[in-house]
Amino acid sequence: MSTPADGLDDLGGQEPPPDDLLAAEYVLGVLDAAPRLAAQARIVSDPAFARLVSDWEHRFALLALELRPAEVPSRVWTRVQERLGWSPAAPAADSGASRSLYFWRLAAGLAATAALALLAVVLVPRWSAPKQSEAQLARAVTTLQRDDGTPGWLATVDVRRGTVLMVPVPSTPDAKGRAAELWLIPPGQAPRSLGAVSITRAYTVEVPATLRPDLTGNAVLAITLEPAAGIPHAAPTGPIIAKGPIHL
Amino acid sequence: MEPDINEPPRERTALDKLLKDIALGSRQAFEKLYRDSSPQLFAICLRIVSQRAEAEDVLQEVFATVWRKAAQYDVERAGAMSWLAMIARNKAIDRIRSQPQARKSEPLDMAEDIADPSASPQLDAQASAERQRLEECLKRLDTRRRSLIRAAFFDGSTYEELAARIGSPLGTVKSWIRRGLMQLRECLEQ
User: Fold this and answer.
1) What's the domain count of chain A?
2) Residue A181 domain flag
3) Count of alpha carbons within 13 angstroms of residue B1, beta-carbon side
């Protein structure tokens, strides 16, 4: 499967590049914020692409070990423990905060389980119900997973109405005061903002008419942290905190 | 010692064992892994996120992720140090992409070649061989492609930043890097 060398002549202009090259660019780190986010969304939704990325990571990883190790200040270890809710030698106030963080993680996990169970209870019987109005139709649940694998939001997409019901698993507000912004990422395209979402309240998002055709099972929903001012933004700048491929 | 019928292709390193224990919830193993690997991972973060306080924050995020994701580490797929290094790079690059003002602009010396084969922590025999092959394949690229790929990798610079840093058109820089990447893949697959 090698490309003949003369086929590479227009590589500088080819957009978007072939998948393997895109995976390489992602791993190398040359992509701007928006294409990087799109690539991350694709890793979630497209196992073949995820495999290409992992192959490139494997090829490149050892290069990173060339750097001379740097001395790490001891405060970093303390903060890692705080972040994990272990609160080692932290002052009482901090340990309270950490415990509360731990509580919220635990609560979030329980709430997620409860929410899933509730959805199962609410939705499953309706599959067999003979009569139902359009509004009562059972809908598939899209889970937007956080980095650690726990659910951050549960979404149900109504293609006909062009709405997305976003149910958060309650979480602590961002320390830097950033807001959660929802993005629709159609395959191979830049993320499009669907506006802000709450981290504590369920909320129905109206998808703009121009974006409704992209509300398909091939697209990904992602949440990033963004400055509250200016939402909806033209492009994401913050890190993805939760994402998942749409289930219809 | 139980006999292993499947003959794992990769021998388990000390870090592999630590990650396995961490996946089971051992804080002690986590602390040991932190002591053993944080200086290397901090170097990666610091190079990409030049601001020290930010780099420290990214390093915390890296280890929080390691704690949560240790169960996903697949020893057959990658060495432990590679896996850790990739988490560090990803977190660091995510961080600078979220801060457009943190763009790197210092000019890039195209002759720069900073390979330091002496720094080679905790690699098993297979990883050492893989690393050597990567170095050899990089050496086969012409200087321009190699310098750009290395700068992109270590600094986390985007195509646009690299183009500005060497004063060449964006399309040209993309083409150099993409050709370099394909050439690299061919060489590594031989």
Assistant:
1) 2
2) no
3) 3
Residue with the two structure tokens 């191979």: A188
Judged by a CB distance cut-off of 8 A, whether residue A68 touches chain B is yes
Q: Alpha-carbon distance A89 to A98, whole Å? A: 12
Q: Which residue of chain A comes nearest to B36, CA vs CA?
A: A69
Q: Is-contact B149 B180, C-beta < 8 A?
A: yes
Answer for the pair B9, A34: CB distance below 8 angstroms, yes or no: no
How many angstroms separate the CA of residue B185 from the nearest CA in chain A?
Answer: 8
How open is the CA angle A155-A160-A162, to the nearest 5 degrees? 55
Q: Which two tokens stand for residue A122?
A: 């609410």
Domain B124-190: CATH class, spelled out: mainly alpha
Q: Report the residue of B81, B138, B182 to disrupt the A interface, i.e. the one with the largest count of A CBs within 10 Å.
A: B182
Which residue, of A85, A100, A133, is where some domain finishes?
A: A133
In the three-class reduction of DSSP (H, G, I as helix; E, B as strand; rest coil), residue B15 is classed as: helix
Is the preceding peptide bond at A236 cis, omega within 30 degrees of 0?
no
**ipTM of predicted complex:** 0.88
CA distance B148 to chain A (A): 10
Sheet with A151-158: strands ordered across: A192-197, A179-185, A220-226, A240-245, A142-146, A151-158, A163-168, A203-206
How many CB atoms are closer than 10 A to CB B2?
Answer: 4
What Cα–Cα distance (Å) separates residue B158 from each residue in A34, A83, A164, A225, B179?
12, 30, 34, 21, 16
Q: What is the DSSP letter of B105?
A: -
CB distance A218 to A45 below 8 Å: yes
Per residue of chain B (190 residues), give pLDDT as tens. Answer: 444 444 445 567 888 899 999 988 899 999 999 999 999 999 999 999 989 999 999 999 999 999 988 988 887 777 888 899 999 999 999 999 988 776 777 777 665 555 555 555 556 677 778 888 898 999 999 999 999 999 999 999 999 999 999 999 999 999 999 999 999 999 998 8
Tell me if A108 sits within 8 A of A242, measured CB to CB: no
For domain B10-101, the question of CATH label 1.10.1740.10 is answered with yes
What's the angle, vertex CA A83, arms to CA A79 and CA A89, rounded to 5?
Answer: 50
Asked if B40 is an interface residue toward chain A (Cβ–Cβ < 8 A), one would say: yes
